[in-house]
TrEMBL record:
Parts forming coiled coils: none
UniProt KW keywords: Cell membrane, Membrane, Transmembrane, Transmembrane helix, Transport
Top-level taxonomic group: Bacteria
Recorded GO CC terms: plasma membrane
TM region positions: 12-33, 53-74, 86-110, 150-168, 175-195, 247-275, 296-314, 320-339, 360-376, 382-402
Keyword Transmembrane helix: yes
Database matches in InterPro entries: MFS (IPR011701), MFS_dom (IPR020846), MFS_trans_sf (IPR036259), MFS_Transporters (IPR050171), Sugar_transporter_CS (IPR005829)
Residues of the Major facilitator superfamily (MFS) profile domain: 10-408
Bilayer topology annotation: Multi-pass membrane protein
Subcellular location: Cell membrane
An example molecular function term from Gene Ontology annotations: transmembrane transporter activity
SUPFAM superfamilies listed in its UniProt record: MFS general substrate transporter
Lineage, broadest ranks: Bacteria, Bacillati, Actinomycetota, Actinomycetes, Streptosporangiales
Name of the protein: Putative MFS family arabinose efflux permease
Length: 419
């Protein structure tokens, strides 16, 4: 982390070592989520014999509610106490999660584990996002968010595939969740001994902006949620994005199993979507720095809607592989770009709280997706749930197209301006 007499230096190159470390920590955050993607829906059906989809998806509902709340508090606490203490607290809370998943004697224990996982994900993922935005400064936020989200979701994919293989070889418990235990222990050690505080970088950047009056958290909530067109458009798009991810997490493995796919095949499909999502962000985040945020957000939501429709229509592994590739590509267009748009608008002095509010809405989508898709699947079947969510995703993209303005204006080099 580079410091000068005038204060911290912003920029990706100047803070490369600390930025890279935070990318690695966020990969471990994603791995904690990935340990559940393949195994938990099947555990609900085969071990705990939950026949109703709504009951089976209670773990996603619990996860979504607690992660959304933790995101909100992560922003506020990061401003008040610093980024690093919040990161460490998140890993301390996440450490028991794999053990609860291994030893759970009833489904209630699984739900309790996902309450802790939601808090862990909200505190740790939000904080790594805030810290990276602190470090890189205004011009490379898209690239920074692309790298951050790519690390997290590639780890989700790799872990989902690995746990599918472990489950097929050694059973649904305990082997798949031992990976999560290793991730949590390693990440806690890195956070305590290697990660450095970045709040000073945000204060340094704030000094280069016009002074801002003290803004209450309530006012930031209203502005981000409803009144500021780009912030509120990003919040609704993020919520719908994770609504369809909650559907994919909870119901896709059950849909594939109902059509006779093996555990290994289900694990491969469960990994394909976050893998494309993760790797694609290496391209889309940086591209939004050059071409703007809005085109990626609108096109990505519409592509997700088309991909979900193809999942609902499909009956073979080949069709689903194509659909999940498209779903991953659409999500990659949206995910880092929404975060970068929030960073474009939010004043550095209120950035952490603004990100917290956005992520409150975004990850609340997990809970809404689990509840909505579970209720529709119970009454009309899984394909009907997927068609419904596809329609909502298309509507979200249309709303962003109408209401959102472009938030990022690339800086043109002086030699280009003078011709």
């Amino acid at each position: 982390m580079t410091l000068t007499r005038s204060g911290p230096v912003l920029g990706l190159r100047a803070n490369a070592a600390q930025f890279t470390l935070l990318v690695a920590v966020n990969a471990l955050v994603g791995g904690m989520l990935g340990q559940e993607r393949t195994v938990l829906p099947l555990l609900a059906e085969q071990t705990f014999h939950l026949a109703a989809y709504t009951a089976a998806l209670t773990y996603i509902l619990a996860f979504g509610i607690t992660k959304a709340a933790a995101n909100f508090f992560a922003g506020t606490w990061s401003d008040r106490y610093g980024r690093k203490p919040v990161l460490i607290a998140g890993w301390l809370i996440g450490l028991p999660v794999p053990l609860l998943l291994i030893w759970a004697p009833s489904w209630g224990w699984i739900v309790a584990a996902n309450v802790l996982l939601g808090v862990n994900q909200g505190l740790t993922w939000s904080t790594t996002v805030i810290m990276k935005i602190d470090l890189v400064g205004p011009q490379r936020r898209g690239l920074a968010m692309g790298l951050n989200e790519a690390a997290g979701y590639v780890a989700v994919a790799v872990t989902a595939m690995a746990t599918g293989h472990l489950a097929a070889t050694h059973g649904l418990r305990p082997a798949p969740f031992l990976l999560g235990l290793a991730y949590a222990a390693l990440a806690l050690g890195l956070s305590v001994f290697a990660v450095k505080e970045t709040r000073g970088h945000a204060h340094h950047e704030a000094a280069t902006h016009a002074p801002t009056q003290t803004v209450s958290t309530g006012r930031i909530f209203l502005r981000t949620s409803f009144t500021e067109p780009a912030l509120s458009s990003a919040s609704q798009a993020g919520m719908v994005n994770n609504l369809n991810d909650g559907l994919a997490w909870g119901l896709f493995p059950l849909l594939f199993a109902a059509h006779g796919l093996t555990l290994a095949q289900i694990g491969l499909l469960a990994a394909l979507y976050p893998l494309i999502w993760g790797l694609g962000q290496l391209i889309t985040g940086a591209a939004s720095d050059r071409h703007g945020r809005k085109p990626f957000i609108v096109a990505g939501m519409l592509l997700q809607a088309a991909a979900l429709a193809l999942v609902a229509h499909g009956t073979t592994m080949t069709t689903w592989a194509i659909a999940l590739t498209l779903l991953g590509a659409g999500t990659a267009m949206v995910y880092p770009t929404l975060l970068a748009a929030i960073g474009d608008i939010a004043h550095p002095a209120t950035r952490a709280r603004t990100i917290g509010v956005y992520r409150l809405w975004r990850d609340g989508g997990f809970a809404i997706g689990a509840l909505l898709s579970g209720l529709i699947a119970d009454t009309h079947g899984i394909p009907a749930a997927i068609w419904t969510v596809a329609a909502l995703t298309a509507a979200s993209g249309a709303l962003a197209a109408v209401r959102m303005y472009e938030t990022h204006r690339p800086v043109v080099p002086a030699d280009a301006r003078t011709g």
